[in-house]
Amino acid sequence: MGIDNVAIKTFNSTGAQSVCRANEADSSKLIESQFLTKCTTEYINGSGVSLINGSAGLTTLTASTTDEFYLPSDCDAISDVIYNGVALSNISKIDVIIGQLTAQTIYPYDIISRNITELATTTITTASPTFSIPFIGRAKNTINSFLQAGAMTNQIKIKVTYKAASITSTDTSVCVFSHQITNTEKNFIAKNIVNRPIHMSQNPTKGVGTVLATTGKTVDLSTININVSHILIHCAGLQSAELILGNDRTGNIPAEALQSSLNSELFSLAGSATNLYIIKTADSAFSTAGIPFARLNNRQLKLTCTSGTPTAHVTVCGTQVQTTVGGTISFSA
């Protein structure tokens, strides 16, 4: 019993894992590892912030009210986007659109769970009007940031969809943390295929479901197609969780063993909260040694609770490969 061998069994030298991981030596290359590799000289980069304004004086929201923020196309990389304006409780979802592709859909509890665990932002709640958006490519280091260079036709757009509500007059905006790289790097990107692992999260059917004390809740993870390092579960009264991947399963793990307060720090995460639980499927958060869910046929998460009918919010986190070639961007697991 257990899923600790699934990542190795499903490794086939493609996808997010192959960018930074291997299980056999390549005789044509120098052997590099965490123990043998010396530090290397890196190219310098420039960083800065810019503000993009959205709606002005919002007072009435409908289900069709949206804000669209076009992030700078003249920058080379983006590592953080901070939204300011409407409270999170009045936001239905946030779509990250790259060119014509909706690359990611983010729901309020994705924002809460990821910002607590990654940024130690314990004050973020549904009442928060200012928060970092955990978009595809948000990272503390630029190596995992979203690479805009070499794909000017694939400008990134943040689309915020609101819920119907009456609010105090509010102006909206996003603050973008962007980076410029050297001409040497840009020339290399223009002439080569560039694969980079970037941080990503996905949500199974909005990640919301009622957990019945009598029957529990089975969450279908079949839509998850990233390289998964961990699963965040926000649920009051959770008794146990079991992750089923192919023919492997974790068994029913008590909620006490999954508490974020016990699992954050040693897993390279920054914060924790009551009723927030972590299922780990890699050596550290956003590790490329996670499990490629797209290569498994049976993917389920079973939850049980002690009493009542609590609502569970599930956010699946990990990595994808961002490929830049010929002026276009694509993503793969």
**E-strand count:** 23
Mean pLDDT: 91
| Separation, N- and C-terminal Cα atoms | 26 Å
CATH fold node name of the largest domain: Adenovirus Type 2 Hexon, domain 4
Radius of gyration: 20 Å
Let me know the CATH homologous superfamily of the largest domain: Adenovirus Type 2 Hexon, domain 4
Shape: globular
Class from helix and strand fractions: mainly beta
Instruction: Give the uncertain stretches in residue-range form.
Output: none
| Proportion of residues in extended strands | 35-45%
**Main sheet, how many strands, which sense, barrel?**
7 strands, antiparallel
Number of helices: 5
How many structural domains are formed by the residues? 2
CATH-defined architecture of the largest domain = Distorted Sandwich
**Fraction in helix:** 10-25%
Q: Which sequence of SSEs, written as H and E, runs from N to C?
A: HHEEEEEEHEEEEEHEEEEEEEHEEEEE
Q: Indicate the multimeric state.
A: single chain
CATH first level of the largest domain: Mainly Beta
Task: Note down, in words, how this protein is organized.
- Strands 12, 13, 15, 19, 20, 22 and 23 form a seven-stranded antiparallel β-sheet that branches.
- The chain is mainly beta and 333 residues long.
- The protein has helices spanning 6-9, 16-20, 108-119, 183-191, 260-263, and strands at 46-53, 58-61, 66-70, 77-84, 91-98, 101-106, 130-132, 146-147, 156-162, 165-170, 173-180, 194-202, 208-210, 217-220, 227-234, 238-245, 248-249, 253-254, 276-280, 291-292, 299-305, 311-325, 328-332.
